[in-house]
């Protein structure tokens, strides 16, 4: 028996089984009674607080609808702001495109103005040459100052050159006016772009949370919306001022293109007429010179023949 008791004492399973049986046989608690009462009281108080909170939340949800309305209004406002900013980006892009096209048209019209000024300078030189030729014709001997065909050609050329010069000056004046108009429209476009850019600086930072709380269909519907043909509205992103500036700029660019075509045609036409007039006057003066030389030669021959006949007689 002593060996059996020692074996059972040294066996771990038997030892923990005996401890469990001895603990089950104990009827009184191990901890103090005050600790047990305090713990039970705290648990009951926590359960009462949880129950009261749940009742308060359920009653507030059933009676107070303001939080739901406020959330809906906030979401609608966020979508409205996002759509307004998206439309503003489209309008700003159109304004920038119009500004670039207006700048290019101003550059082209400036080149056309330089060509007109160059052609006008040529006409002034031709007029000065005509006046100088007329002055030289006035220095002829008295017996040759009677007006002839060369004088008529020079006079006609002078009238023709003044008419061409007047036409080019009128075209150049219209080009200056168009450049002034385009410069004013460019300033208005810059002002409209700056105004739209101020709106683009106010980017809403709640976009990510808005997309997270929205449904997939609503997100796809609003994310890919683009204004195809916006209507001018003082309260929208496409204001009447922006619409008027875009319309006037497009009209001014079309008029400028037509004016450039007219200026190119005027330069080519006046140059062709000036060359024809110059050749006509040059041929007339050459013919007059040839007639004078022929007449002089004939007179000299007659004089020499007459002198020879006198000497022989």
Compact overview of the structure:
This protein has 313 residues and is an all-alpha fold.
What does this structure look like?
The protein is an all-alpha fold and 313 residues long. 85% of the residues lie in helices and 0% in strands. The protein has helices spanning 2-10, 12-24, 33-63, 66-137, 149-200, 207-213, 216-223, 240-312. The longest helix is centred in the last third of the chain and has 73 residues, at 240-312. The radius of gyration is 53 Å and the shape is rod-shaped. The termini are far apart.
How many strands, which pairing sense, and closed or not: the largest β-sheet?
none
How far the N terminus sits from the C terminus, by CA atoms, comes to 201 Å
* Percent helix: over 70%
Regions with little confidence, pLDDT below 50 for 5+ residues: 1-10, 204-227
**Assembly state of the chains shown:** single chain
Radius of gyration: 53 Å
Q: Provide the β-strand percentage band.
A: under 5%
Tally of strands:
0
H/E topology pattern:
HHHHHHHH
Structural class call reads: mainly alpha
Number of helices: 8
**Average of pLDDT:** 76
Silhouette = rod-shaped
